[in-house]
Fold S-adenosylmethionine:tRNA ribosyltransferase-isomerase.
Amino acid sequence: MPTADQQLSAYDYALPTERIAQTPAVPRDTSRLLVIHDSAHHCHQHFHDLPNWLQPGDLLVLNNTRVIPARLHGIKVGGAKVEVLLLEEKTDNQWLALVKPGRRLKPGAVIEFIPLDMAAPTADLRAEVLASDAATGGRLLKFMVKDNRRLLEVIDRFGTMPLPPYITGRDSTPEQYQTVYADRDGSAAAPTAGLHFTPQLFEQLDRMGVQRAFVTLHVGVGTFRPVETEDITQHQMHGEWIEVSSTVVEQIEQTKAKGGRVIAVGTTSVRSLEGAANANPTGKLLPFCGKTDMFIYPGYKWRVVDGLITNFHLPKSSLMMLVSALIGRERLLALYQEAIDLKYRFFSFGDAMLILPETPKNTFPDL
């Protein structure tokens, strides 16, 4: 029998609809920040207070993926309307995608896409269904672009930002769903813990001596796919492409050698670092470029990450399970309930948590 920490139902909580943030905080760093600074204490701050909780020599590890306008609309040759959500580029102009309605898009079907400034499809961008993908329920699409260009060269003309379905408002701008440091195209969703940072906040952290390192994980179905098995140990994560460079490995080694802390910004940065370490049979972090299907839940033995900046996640999600592995499921649920009572904002455009490793007494900021 699975333990309580291994049961999907143990990660459920009731969230009032009004607590789901529809727009981001403006400025970004005015969002609230729940700081967990040891195994027994926490406090309520704002994100611009982050420098009070970091120390010279700490290393922030951020995911530099950039969200592409991955939602496309078109017409199947023959007449049916089609919606496509790009997930992952397999090879040049071949993409794994979720499609609606999937049952009508069998191998060989052809889609013509509708530009944003037109009402009808054009032959400038077409795609052929090559195969179905059992793991995601999606399709492998081969895109045919006018003048033999890459899809990413023309996607701004056809695609829209793929905001999560729980964001029903239309008041946010596409750039508000990008981190200020995003520079690697390829993500179907934002690494939302990074949305709180501003250039001014980074300047302040630089002056303090807080370092930064960048990994890449292009967010796809692995991150937001729901856990559907009551015994969560039976859940299989879909692989996502990550890159952890030799420079990042050196920065982490130097940080730890000097007594600094490695603070991952977002669960995707966690999965990148721990996934790279997990790819090495010894568990030692080495440079890595490839896919990770790592699923982190309570009982996980941490190899790289000391602390975490993260948002408040959906009930029963693999992201909640990852955070629970760092601070404990029961404590996380208690903190979520307190945040709900104090009217924190949840999910992608919502507020943040900072989870720090144990700190020696008498070294907390003066509050």
